Amino acid sequence: MSNKERKRVAIVTWKGGENFGTCLQGYALQERLISLGYLVGLLPDVPHADGVKSWIQWVMSSVGLMRLRVWLKRKHDFQTNKRMRWERKAYRTLTLWTQWQLRRLVQRTDCFVTGSDQIWNTYHHFMPMQFLNFAGKKKRIAYASSIGTERFKPEYEAQVKEWLLKFQHIGVREQAAVRTIADLTGRSDVVQVVDPTLLISVTEWRNFAKDAEVEIELPRHFIFCYLVGDNPWYVDQLRAVSDKVGLPIVIVPACENPLFEFEGSIVYRYATAVEFVALIDRADFVCTDSFHATAFSINFKKPFVEFMRFREGDVASQNSRIYELLTHYGLMKRIYSETSTEWTMPIEYGKVSELLDSDIKRSLRYLIDSIER
Q1: I need a labelling partner for 23 at 20 to 30 A (CA). Which of 16, 114, 233, 254 fits?
Q2: What sign does the CA torsion over 162, 163, 165, 170 have?
């Protein structure tokens, strides 16, 4: 297929930064679309109205001065620069500084795909671009877009409804979002699909992680710990996990909880998304409250235990996405419990993998059909 025949697809999502799940979902969707033969670029942001500042930024970007400016600002931060080097290598980023550039991009693009992660979580933020409000008459597709919570924030519902009705195809990550969007818009064609990270096989992820640069000496056997929440009860729960599993703990602090430590653990602060994947692959056991760390554990067939990040009844709780993932694959017993040790038992991954394979095939068919028809 020549470049002239290949469809141009622009992904609209969070590019990542310090959150590994966010980094990897965008990368995974990009790479799978490329492997399917599309010309792909990732659009993490759209410019504001044209002005002198945006044109100056465009000129500086054209001659490489914007990258130099960022490097000079952060040159003493080893962790940030390591991450930035990976992002420059990994993403095919469509950087826009002016509305003129945006208009040209829309003209040249066959379809826009928004997703995944919690880009539609209006309790966390409200970003019109994530609903493709700028896409004009071009095809709009949602792939694994997540609301994260049980509903949209009431004050945004009318605007969200207007934008969602302009999508040709909507695929969301959680079944609860299917119901929420159907109730809001009256649409009956919303479907549930897997997170983009699950579209990438273990073999492909291992090839991705072969470039990992782990600057510390790791134990031969260990528990990998990645906790996003900053909850006081995590320390006691982690102590119980360590005692039950009987292995040393390697902690990669999440950007939302950068100072988390545990007595006697090994804390590795210089991980990028590459090391994150590599450590999950090498670990004997995973302890997390993260959706994506859980998804990777399932993909890599790892035993894991799930901590619940939010208290029940919290209106902004994101626990539902974890419950749904675990329920779908018959893994609810992996949730940490003080009164039961079932979360320490081996996981029979035969049936899990069979269902996951079926979900992946169905999700890929949705993605291809949405672009092609």
Answers
A1: 233
A2: negative
